[in-house]
From TrEMBL:
Protein name (database record): Diguanylate cyclase
Signal peptide bounds: none
EAL domain span: 24-278
């Protein structure tokens, strides 16, 4: 480059935009390093049956255990991992870790419950998610019923051949599919039926307004009825208050997840929850007066 060019570059390097690009690159590099050195831990959030209070499953939620900054939540790094492609390696770590945990529980004679794993659209774009799950099932000799996959509406609505095929293959293995964050995307209801999902997770945005917004009550009621008609299971996400839980019981939503039941916890604490087995007071709300 000519001298003039270099001068231009020099100015650019000093400028604020450059600093921002630089720190973005640093952050990306740090994330890549963190993945290579396995600074991640999978935490587990249980879900429970609203009638018996019994634990029904766990959701695997990744955490970055940063040596200096401490525990970092996914909202601070998942988007970057997706845009740089490092989500593929991170996703592999998560899957590996879940299988390892289940195998450990199994070998210790614990009563097992299914664990659901979040899969990003970019992981399916990259491809091979079906093969990855298949080989882990074989490697760990794991019952496919113990593994579940959480996909968002955008993935479910995708018509990309490779994505449709991976999803169909995962389903064929006997792995249940959850439609995560239901109600926040733009699902077509007809596609819902085609796709053979087993579980709908109602997004926290609806759950949080239950019992205080008539509109939210009607929406959740409608989603529950629709799920029943389609023979799908339903899980309400983000249940934080007894009021919300009562409303969900009235609406016959049979599974709940949220801080009211338990926050996502370390593997060690998850083992304790597994042994505790009953996570909710099974007391029913007041019986509904006859119509
Ligand atoms: P998600 O799959 O919808 O997970 C639920 C999120 O809501 C979790 O946040 C969970 O901690 C939080 N949550 C649960 N109950 C409550 C509640 O009662 N109140 C409130 N306010 N929040 C609650 P988290 O762990 O920060 O994860 C955020 C998102 O990051 C997840 O949303 C998921 O989309 C993504 N994610 C997490 N782990 C992974 C992973 O291993 N792979 C991929 N691809 N994505 C992941
Ligand atoms: Mg999820
Ligand atoms: Mg969700
Ligand atoms: Mg979400």
């Amino acid at each position: 480059a000519s001298k003039a060019d270099k001068k231009g570059l020099f100015r650019f390097y000093n400028d604020e935009l450059y600093q921002r690009i630089r720190s973005k690159l640093d952050a990306e590099e740090e994330l890549a390093h963190a993945i290579a050195s396995r600074q991640f831990e999978v935490h587990y959030q249980p879900r429970a049956d609203t009638r018996s209070g019994e634990i029904r499953g766990f959701e695997a939620l990744v955490r970055w255990m940063h040596p200096v900054r401490g525990m970092i939540l996914p909202s601070h790094f998942i988007a970057m991992a997706e845009s740089t492609g490092s989500i593929v390696a991170l996703g592999s770590l998560v899957m590996q870790s879940v299988f390892e945990q289940l195998a450990q529980w199994r070998d210790a004679g614990e009563t097992l419950v299914p664990v659901s794993i979040n899969i990003s659209p970019s992981q399916l774009d990259a491809g091979g998610v079906d093969h990855q799950i298949q080989s882990l099932l074989e490697q760990y000799d794991m019952q496919p019923e113990l593994i579940e996959v959480e996909l968002t509406e955008s993935v479910m609505m995708s018509e990309a051949e490779s994505i449709v095929e991976q999803i169909a293959n995962i389903r064929k293995m006997g792995v249940k599919l959850h439609l995560d964050d239901f109600g926040t995307g733009y699902s077509s209801l007809s596609r819902l039926q085609e796709i053979d999902m087993q579980v709908i997770k109602i997004d926290r945005a609806f759950v949080s307004r239950l019992g205080t917004s008539n509109q939210a009550d009607v929406l959740v009621k409608t989603i529950v009825l629709m799920a029943k008609e389609l023979h799908m299971e339903i899980i309400a996400e983000g249940v934080e208050t007894p009021l919300q839980l009562d409303a969900l019981r009235h609406l016959e939503c049979n599974e709940v997840q949220g801080y009211l039941i338990a926050r996502p916890v370390s593997p060690k604490e998850a083992t304790a929850l597994l042994r505790q087995r009953f996570l909710l007071d099974a007391s029913k709300p007041e019986a509904e007066p006859p119509a």
